[in-house]
Amino acid sequence: CEEPIAGAEEPLPLKLPHMDNYEPGTDPQGCLARATDWRYFEKDGAWFARETNTMPQWAGSCWYFLRYIDPDNQDAAWSLEADKSWMPVDLYVGGQEHAVLHLLYARFWHKVLHQLGLTAAPEPFQKLVHQGMILGADGEKMSKSRGNVVNPDDVVKEYGADALRLYEMFMGPLEATKPWQTSQVTGVVRFRNKVFNLASMRYDLSDESMDDETARILHKTMKKVTEDVENLAFNTAISALMVLVNHLSGLKTRAPPREAVEKVVLMISPFAPHVAEECWQILGHEGSIARESWVTWDEKLCIDSVVKLGVQVNGKVRGTIELAKDADETEAQELGLALESVQKFVEGKTIKKVIYVPGRILNIVAK
Q: Where do the Aminoacyl-tRNA synthetase class Ia domain residues begin and end (predicted)?
C-alpha cells in the first residue's frame, strides 16, 4: 500500500532484525531494506513496508569526536579512560549555521551521554570560533543563481594548492566575512615563489653568523608567527613572514643566512605544506618537515634597542630620528634639533617646552 500508516503501539519499542552485513549497499533506504522478512508486513489484507531510512546524519556527526579518541576499541564506542584523557575538545571551529545546527545538536547528545555516565565532561567543546563567510567577488553570498561561485579546483589547477591555502588565510581575520578576489591570489604566489627561490640558493646560502638586523627581524618573526597561529590570526602571521622573506631576498652585501631560510621554511609549512616539503629537501634535509620541531626565539632579540621616533614641532611631525630606546631627553632633543627639517621651524623662535616620552614621541614647543 502506498498510503503511509502509523505503526501500532503494541510492538514498541520496535526490535531491529539481526544483520550479518551493515554496509549501506546501493539501496538509498539503507541496509535494513535488505531484511525483507522484517521490512514487509501484512495488515488488514494490505501489504506495507517499514520506513528504513530513519536515522539522520546527526546520529553520527554529533558524537564522532568521542569515537576519534578511541578508534580501535572493539569492546565499546570509547573507554572512560580515553574520555578522561582527551575530552573535552579544545577548539570547535564552524560557520554561522553551525551555531543552530551541529553545535546545538552535538551539545544535546553529549549532555545525554554525560547524564548516562558515559562521558565525564558536561560540555563537549571548550572554545568556539566562528569562521567568517567567503563571499563572491561581487560581495554577495556565493550561489549558482548569482553565477559568483568560485570553484577551488580551478584555483588549485591554475595556481596550486599552497597558493589557495595561503590566500584564504591571508584574506583577513578568520572571523571576518570577506569577498573572494582571484586577481589577488598572484600576490601570495609571488611570496610562495620567493620562499622557493631562497631555498633554491642552497649552495649560495651563508653559514656565518647573522648580522644584528637580520637576527632581530628573524626572532621577532618567529615569536609573532607562533603567537598569531595560537590565536588563529593567520593573516598577520603570513604578513610577518612576507616582511622577513622580503628582507632576506633584499640582502645586498651578503648571502641570506642558511639558518634564517630554514626557519622561514619551517614557519611556512603549516600554511603551504607542499612547497615547504620541497624546500626542506632542497636544503639537504631527509625526512618530512612535519616531523621537525617548531621554531624557538630569543626574547632579548625581540626587544628593540634602537627605535625610530617622530619629532614634532608644535604638534606637527617634522622629521624622524633613531636613538636608543632608553635615551634621555637631552640626547633626544639634541638629535631632534640637529635635523634640517626641524631647524627651519624653530629658527628665530624660543623653545618654550619639550615633551619627551622615551620610545614614543618628542614634541618641541617653540614660539
A: 86-167
